[in-house]
Structure formats: C-alpha cells, structure tokens
C-alpha cells in the first residue's frame, strides 16, 4: 500500500542548477498538491492540480513549474535553484468532491538544500 | 487572506493526562477543517476531518470540535501516551486549497 511516493528523498544542489521532484499516487485521486515546509512558516501551497490536465498556482509559485503527467503523477521543477528554495517539499493527493475535499494523503517529503 | 494560528507552539505533559490543542482561523467561510499529525522527518497523517456543518468528530482517544462562527477548533487527546509525541497541525479548506497552521509540538513525558 504505497500511497504517495516522492523521489528523491534528499538532494543537494548548487545555485542555478535545475531539477525535477517526482510524485506518484496509487489511490486514483483526482487532485494533487505540492507544498513546501519551512521552520516557523507552516506548509505553504506551491501549485495544485484539481484534475488531470489542469494546474493552478498556490500561495508561493514563483521559481517553480509543475506538470500533471497523468492521473498518477505530478512533478515539480526548479528551473534555476536559489538558496531561498532550500526547504522540505511535500506532495499530497486527495479525492475532489465539489466544494469540498477528502483527507489529503502526504508523501514523506523531499529534503532539498541549495548551496 | 485566511490565517491559521496554533497556540502554544510547544507543549509538554505527563503521560496519562488529558490535553487540548487549539487552532483558530480568521475567515469562517470554510468547507472543512482537518487535524494532522507529523512525526520527525515524515509527512503528514490525517487524523480527523470535520465538515463545516459538523460540530465534532471522534476517533479513538481523539476528539476534534469546530466552532465555525468563532473561528476555533480544538483537538482533545484523552489519556495521553508517549507515542502521541509529535507535531499536530490544523488546516482549513476553502477556495480549493488547505491553509495550514504552524503546528503544536507535543511531548508526552513518561
């Protein structure tokens, strides 16, 4: 019972490098989300995808791009990494019901350091 | 803009005691509220979800209440155990997304 799987678990980048964080869910959920978690800031939404083929900006989208590759997979790309993007990144998924949501299921996170 | 506050930021209690964690939010136009648990180095696990039309939800030793009009929720943990030690986050759902509080780090002292 995998749930939400994120890869990689850890990554160190140099400023200016690019990388893609991968996320896959096996629960047939419609909606997927990318968050970042920083000390004292809580979790903040970067991008979300309410359904396959759609993506929308969250609270802190600058410096990131996303792709909803299919219903299972939702990737987050950093085109030119900056030290301010050092954070723990979480992917989540949930079933979407009109004007509501069901409990979100989270992956274990990707710990990203930008030097 | 929705803001979610959790006070205190950290709490330590002896094993066996009952305890209450608090959550407040500024915009009462929410669809539901969730309580999550986060263990160190791990993701979030959903504990309870309360729809806006509900007043409370219970799961085992956990009971969550919601007073939407006053913008408050509480998570009650009965007969606390060392395994309850974790960070507890509340989050409100509105405008298609969750807004999280910064959490309360709970330590149960054996």
Please state the structural category of chain B. Answer: mainly beta
Distance between the termini of chain B: 41 Å
Helix content of chain A: under 10%
Low-confidence stretches of chain A: none
Low-confidence stretches of chain B are: none
How many beta-strand elements of chain B? 11
Shape of chain B: globular
Strand content of chain B: over 45%
Order of helices and strands of chain B: EEEEEEEEEEE
Oligomer: heterodimer
Gap from first CA to last CA of chain A = 35 Å
The share of residues in extended strands of chain A comes to over 45%
Classify the helix fraction of chain B into a percent range.
Answer: under 10%
* Count of discrete alpha- or pi-helical segments spanning 4 or more residues of chain B: 0
Radius of gyration of chain A: 13 Å
For the biggest sheet of chain A, the summary is: 7 strands, mixed
Mean pLDDT of chain A: 91
Q: Give the CA-based shape of chain A.
A: globular
Profile the largest sheet of chain B. Answer: 6 strands, mixed
- Count of individual helical segments of chain A: 0
